[in-house]
């Protein structure tokens, strides 16, 4: 396989251990892009009351400030990953960053609800390109086992910490400046990302990706968008409503049509043969559960702090700082332990810790304190998240060739997004049922009953993922330079993408 580099003139040659000298800048650019995408999912949450007051949102429509981003982001992730492979990583990163910056300014200047929702949809479009791309550029730059593991660890740590930091940043900006700054803050981040991308990210086009599968792109976008829309509506209006059932029906039909088309077309958007590698299908299945558990767990923890313990938005954001600390510790431990103990052991241990942490969250009550009730679950769960996200991301991307880096990155991100949407929709219903079933006459106690039940189900999701990992995850993830012999042989004793045996 050959690649075309069109980076800046005078680009440095390979550095230590076969890595290009700009590898550190590539990692920084990828992390800046990923941080902005993840932050934008949560940074507006704290500002929603101020947005509603200022722009005059009608009752029930305010959720679309969040949903517009989530819907477009989730629906276009697979297309975004393959589009980056098609046009080149350098061009795609520039395009994604510029669109994100422009739509952030438009959103900050919005004078009507429609203008803000449209801007948020534009941010979702840019995020769908940047999220898989940020991981893809790491995969094609860091081709050696330890170097790639460290780089993926940093990327996963940024992804895991982003939501918690988004809540804190949103509280600070809303309280000290105005809600508009939760959008304007992206502008300097975009500027830094553009400088880093210009200095380091090459145009990674390959001879294999000659055209974009337009029909497949339309079908999968319709399928995923309809699925996410149905899940959002189910969380708001219930599972049996006409709009929800219609969305799920569209998702099913479009998904089936996509699967049939991809098996028949040349140059498919998703090459289903990649799932013959055990590392790929296990990692994507596990990340569905991780996404469901972490998104829903974080959501209900935020509600518990504000609705039960009566924290202000700013104080609630600050309460998640230990979660960031635990994630960093878990990521660092994962980098050290995975080479010694193997991917399966570290991933299973991380998911088990996540289950224990969520179980401890489910034991909180109305008289809980931060130190006595919230701190320990935060540290246990976040350490597990750091361990399992790093190990699972490394597993999903091990041995993937450069021309499919965007595709695999899109799959992982789409699985996490869909898992989060499913988890939030289902657990919102679980929490509501738990509150309704409570015999208490106290409104706060009814909330606690519902939140605790949601936490217990979240713990169960982590436990199921731990069992799946323990049973099916390969013991060791093998990372080879893309294009090298056996690069498609992803894991030890796992089979390969092409069905051949992995070389010893």
UniProtKB/TrEMBL annotation:
SUPFAM superfamilies in UniProt: MFS general substrate transporter
A Pfam family found in this protein is MFS_1
Q: Does the keyword Transmembrane apply?
A: yes
Q: Where in the cell is it found?
A: Cell membrane
Outline the segment boundaries, as ranges, of region: Disordered. Answer: 482-504
Question: What's the domain of life for this entry?
Answer: Bacteria
Keywords of this entry: Antibiotic resistance, Cell membrane, Membrane, Transmembrane, Transmembrane helix, Transport
InterPro entries per the record? Answer: EmrB-like (IPR004638), MFS (IPR011701), MFS_dom (IPR020846), MFS_trans_sf (IPR036259)
Q: What is its main location?
A: membrane
Span of domain Major facilitator superfamily (MFS) profile: 26-477
* Keyword flag Transmembrane helix: yes
Kindly list the residue ranges recorded as spanning the membrane: 60-79, 91-110, 122-142, 154-173, 179-200, 212-232, 238-261, 281-302, 314-333, 345-364, 370-391, 454-473
Membrane-related topology note: Multi-pass membrane protein
What the entry lists under Gene3D superfamilies is as follows: MFS general substrate transporter like domains, Multidrug resistance protein D
Q: Which NCBIfam families match?
A: efflux_EmrB
Name-wise, this protein is: MFS transporter
């Amino acid at each position: 396989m050959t690649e075309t580099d069109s980076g800046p003139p005078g680009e440095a040659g390979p550095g230590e251990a076969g890595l290009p000298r700009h590898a550190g800048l590539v990692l920084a650019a990828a992390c800046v892009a990923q941080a902005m995408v993840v932050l934008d999912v949560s940074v507006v949450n704290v500002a929603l009351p101020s947005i509603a007051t200022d722009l005059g949102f009608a009752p029930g429509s305010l959720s679309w400030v969040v949903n517009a981003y989530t819907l477009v982001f989730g629906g276009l992730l697979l297309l975004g990953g393959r589009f980056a492979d098609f046009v080149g990583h350098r061009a795609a990163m520039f395009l994604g960053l510029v669109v994100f910056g422009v739509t952030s300014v438009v959103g900050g200047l919005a004078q009507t609800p429609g203008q803000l929702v449209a801007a948020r949809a534009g941010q979702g479009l840019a995020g769908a390109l940047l999220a898989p791309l940020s991981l893809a550029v790491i995969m094609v730059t860091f081709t050696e086992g330890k170097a790639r593991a460290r780089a993926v660890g940093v990327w996963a740590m940024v992804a895991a910490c982003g939501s918690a930091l988004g809540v804190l940043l949103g509280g600070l900006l809303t309280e000290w400046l105005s809600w508009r700054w939760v959008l304007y803050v992206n502008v300097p981040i975009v500027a830094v990302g553009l400088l880093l991308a210009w200095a380091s990210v090459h145009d990674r086009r390959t001879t294999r990706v000659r055209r974009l599968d337009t029909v497949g792109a339309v079908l999968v976008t319709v399928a995923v968008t309809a699925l996410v829309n149905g899940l959002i509506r189910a969380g708001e209006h219930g599972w049996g409503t006409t709009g929800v059932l219609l969305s799920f029906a569209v998702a099913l039909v479009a998904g089936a049509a996509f699967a049939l088309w991809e098996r028949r077309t040349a140059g498919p958007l998703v090459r289903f043969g990649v799932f013959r590698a055990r590392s790929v299908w296990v990692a994507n299945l596990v990340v569905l559960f991780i996404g469901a558990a972490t998104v829903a767990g974080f959501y209900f923890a935020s509600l518990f702090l504000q609705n039960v313990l009566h924290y202000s938005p700013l104080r609630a954001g600050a309460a998640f700082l230990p979660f960031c600390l635990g994630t960093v510790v878990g990521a660092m431990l994962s980098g050290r332990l995975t080479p010694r103990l193997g991917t399966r052991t570290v991933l299973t241990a991380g998911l088990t810790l996540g289950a224990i942490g969520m179980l401890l969250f489910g034991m909180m009550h109305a008289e809980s304190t931060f130190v006595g009730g919230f701190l320990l679950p935060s540290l246990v769960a976040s350490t597990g998240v750091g361990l399992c996200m790093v190990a699972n991301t490394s597993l999903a991307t091990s041995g993937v060739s450069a021309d499919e880096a965007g595709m695999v990155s899109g799959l992982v991100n789409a699985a996490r997004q869909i898992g989060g949407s499913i988890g939030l929709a289902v657990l919102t219903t679980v929490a509501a049922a738990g509150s309704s079933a409570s015999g208490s006459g106290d409104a706060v106690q009814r909330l606690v009953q519902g939140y605790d039940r949601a936490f217990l189900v979240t713990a169960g999701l982590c436990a199921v993922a731990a069992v799946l990992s323990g049973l099916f995850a390969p013991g060791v993830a093998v990372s080879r330079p893309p294009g090298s012999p056996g690069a498609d042989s992803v894991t030890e004793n796992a089979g390969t993408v092409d069905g051949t045996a992995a070389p010893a």
